[in-house]
Amino acid sequence: MRAKIFHTGFWALAGTLAILCSPLLLWPGPRPATFAIGAFAKLFRRWLQLCGVRVEYRGLEHIPKDQLVILAAKHQSYGDGLCHLARDPALAYVIGDHMLRFPLVGLYLQRAEAVVVDNDAGRRANGALDEGVARLARDSRSALIFPEGGLTPVGGGRRFRKGVHRLAQTLDRPVIPVATNLGCFWPEQEPVLYPGTAVIEFLPAMSADTDSRSFMTELQTRVEARTRELEAEALASRSHIA
Question: How far is 84 from 48, CA to CA, in rounded Å?
């Protein structure tokens, strides 16, 4: 019952806000669409909490207050991106082209100047990323990227893609690895919702000065290791609640 209420409210909220805010798409520039997406993200986090899942942000001291960064985040739940935007609505984001297939959502993301990459294009995706890098270089926004290129189940993962390294080197920004256990509460592969406290944890910054292979290996090791620890923490708390 909890899951049905949550999912019904989630889609009702998304659809209603998308329609109500659609006039903002007529305004020039990315700010109106960014505002609408940020507003939805904040409402989503509140709805998630009302349905029993509180989101805790840890390691915020690792995000410099006077420097733009690249957030390289673990991706295991549909709520990951929204929770990041609820914390910082000004974030720019690198997304897969599959997000453009949702009615109105794709239009909002395009107007918000999201960097859209074809997840199946391999090396050909570099062109879109290059365009996005040029755009981000003009903006004064930190960026969010999911190096796995898609959702992964709890306990699993994909090889991290090198785009985050190119992004950080070109923009000359530090990379903040981000671990999470949100998938333990709202998993992408199951139509359920478990109550508890989900964690999004920001780890110490990494420099992209090293070669791509070494950097990506270290980034994935840090994110996956801490994610496994957070997953164990979440599953233990779920067992206690049960």
Answer: 14
